[in-house]
Amino acid sequence: MTGTAVGPTRIAGSEAAAPPRRRSALLLAVLVVLTAATLVLGYANKARCTGPEFDAQGRSAPDYENRKDRDVCYSDIQHLWLGRDINEHVFPYVDGGIDANGMLTGGTVEYPVLTGMIMWLAALGAHTDAGFLLASALIMAPFGLATGWLLGRLSRWRALLWALGPPLVLYAFHNWDLPVVACAVGAVWVVHGLRGSRSLVWRGNVAALLLGLGFALKLYPGAFVLPLALYVLTRGEDRVPGSRLDWWGAVRVAGTAVLTAVVVNLPFAIAGFPGWKASFTFQELRKVDFTTNSFWFWGFRPDSDPSNIGFQDLVSWLSPVLVLASFLVAAALGLWRMRRVGSYPWVAVSAAMLCGFLLLHKVHSPQYTLWLLPFFVLLRVPWGVVAGYLAADAVMGIGIFRWLYDVRAGANLEITQGLAAQAVAVGVWGRAALLVALFVLFLRVPPTFELRPEDREGPVPEGPPTVAAAPAA
Predict the structure, then answer these.
(1) In the beta sheet, which residues pair with residue 54?
(2) Model confidence over 108-124: pLDDT tens digits?
(3) How far apart are CA 435 and CA 428, in angstroms?
(4) pTM for the predicted model, two decimal places
(5) Cα atoms in the Cβ-side hemisphere of radius 13 Å centred on 380
(6) Domain layout of the chain by residue ranges
(7) DSSP-based three-state secondary structure for 416
(8) How far is CA 361 from CA 87, 132, 175, 212, in A?
(9) Is 457 in contact with 24 (CB distance < 8 Å)?
(10) How far are the Cα atoms of 191, 239, 340, 451 from residue 473, in angstroms, in the given order?
(11) For residue 266, how many other CB atoms are within 10 A of its CB?
């Protein structure tokens, strides 16, 4: 009798599970298709600056220097076709360096080594800046699609914010940021969305590996290793008040991230240490000026003029100190929050740390919004706050290029005057105020994904996160 009862039960269960699986597959397919469409728009937006003619070095003509800002189609990808020996297909870092004027030489680029490798690969078959932009877009587009898929697995329809968000049109191919965003989101998915019965330490180590690769792409995911290690240290969702801390697990997670970053960087450091080091030196020497889009420039006029060496030296050490202090504050607040929610909120702490960096770093490039956008999906930030931030970012991201055109064309004798300059100021200050608010808000709102990974076929429904009850001590 028992045997005859089991068969129908399994069939009924399979039939009941089939529709949710089909809905999940449909959801993910829609998200990927919409992300692809938005990426095409993002490429078309930047490709407006290419051609129709090209000079002997492959630079778009005519009048590239004016129209890149005037037509708001500038991208670092197209622009850096010249000036870093990319057009000469020179292998990066090995024979490079930095001169006394702070200019990079010999193929060194101002980005970590994995981004440098993407740039080199994209340039191999290119002979113009248009070809370089297209090849870079083709290499990076799969990372943007993967990010949309992973966010859909974690947070369902809220991932439409990534798939259809204005930042993807404005910045997807502004710089080489899609791979590093995919690494950061992938780390969250490994910890909280990976199916199966893998242990927390195993998942933490895989996530740490992804964060280490992210460090070798654009540095910032390396900061997330601290909250991830604290999550493992306090045993994540298995935490029981008064239980032992998993020191060995946390050390393994931190060690995996460090080892990954070292293994990736070491060959370049050995092959050409001056060129490898120059990529970091270039960022250290960069001054606060009208191209950095940060409150350091706008908030301290006229002292923030690049000719004021005292101010520039002050910001060079004060900015990183304040960034590190914000990291520690966010990590400490995460420990306080853990007492209320039951587990260490490492994703929320990572988001708050990123806010600290974006606010206090002396440079705020427009495409950094792509770094923050996934956290609007992963954490239940009110839609009004999200809309406000994206609006301020769009005002700044569009206004900055019209303003640069005015400044370089000599339209404004005082660079802080004019409609475009006011748009940039509104964007910079509006974004700065929202970053302060988000630093606090990220640590208070719940996640949009299930905290404990389960062996399931599709993404969980959007709703209040579920936390499994802790076992008895």
Answers:
(1) 60
(2) 999 999 999 999 999 99
(3) 10
(4) 0.89
(5) 11
(6) 28-442
(7) coil
(8) 31, 29, 18, 21
(9) yes
(10) 24, 10, 18, 21
(11) 12
